[in-house]
Amino acid sequence: MNRKAALFLTSTGISNLGDWIYFIPLNMMVYSMTGSAAAVAGVYIIRPLAGILTSFWAGSLIDRYSQRNLMIGLDFMRALLVLLILAAPTLPIIYVLVFLICMVDAVYDPAAAAYSSRLIPSKYRQVFNSYKSLAWSGSFILGPALAGLLFITGQPEFAFFANSFTFIISALLLFLLPHLGTAGHPPEKRISFSVYADDWRMVIGYMKSARYVMSVYLLFNGLMMMAAALDSQEVVFSREILKLSDSAYGLLVSISGIGLLIGSFFNRLAVKKLSPSFLIGCGGLMIAGGYLVYSLSSTFLMAAIGFFILAFFMAFANTGIWTFYQDHVPADIMGRVGSALGMVISLIQVIFVSGIGLAGDWFPLRIVIISGAGVMVLLSLLLFTAAMKPFSHMPQLGKQLNKSDVR
User: Fold this and answer.
1) Alpha-carbon torsion (48, 54, 60, 65), positive or negative
2) Global confidence as pTM
3) At 378, is the pLDDT very low, low, confident or very high (cuts 50, 70, 90)?
């Protein structure tokens, strides 16, 4: 991995670590202010709602302006917004600030994906994404651990300063990376409603012409959103159905983190020998299988096995889908396509999380979790079929559109 790739990976990795450090104290702050589990759940709903509202216009900015400079500005914005949470006097203001942070995230993530696809040559993308998965899994383990340490020392508010600092470091590292222009076409002086309308027509046209790419990407994210929906009931299931203590539940989460880290190491060793489609298809099957084992578990050991399996193969599946997306979506429209897909995925997340939450109130939780795992198995089988389907030609819309179409 060359210097530029290492700098970019370090920048995004540090930023992601900060997110994990402050997320737990944020939930605890909301709970201490309200004493309401529903208020904490509201934090989880904010992200997809912010993604839906942002996706309408974010892609047009990402594809028309310097993605590196855009990410730098967004990092500084996030640094400020995180610090403002500490000074927020009421829950509604906290929600507003979290909503703004999530809106910035909804612009940053597709911008980072588009920039990395132009920064990293295609033959090195899968290796780069395996390192990215390793960094992500390390953040998943280290971030909550550091947050827990801050609680022990009696300084949980320091997590917000730490997260703000990580955003600043991330921005400074991005200054060291090259400015790659504006995705191959000049920026608009003024983005009007007609420009947004043209962009959405272009995106819809691309999606229709790239049904294979869309089917794989949306099936994968549907699988992940159902996993997120089941995760929203994880604490209740572990305590009420499995009868686990707080310490046992903490150990279960730690086992999941260890599985993710070990899987990332194995993924890094094997990534050159496996295709993205294979990583997606087989990884998705094993993730669903892990959730099914967990849903059927009646003991700590069985639940731990399920958690380890799903976390281990998460690293393989993530590397596969990141590489697949970068290889198949043209770089000059990746921002717009990514934002549109983000809106669809956010809608799916709201539907799945709300559906599982309501079902958990209406029906026995064990039945709800098993049913959700069954849906995951069905989605994973469809994903495996779609991902492994041979194809001889995938239209690259970026080569077919004229300049007026992509401006």
Assistant:
1) negative
2) 0.72
3) very high
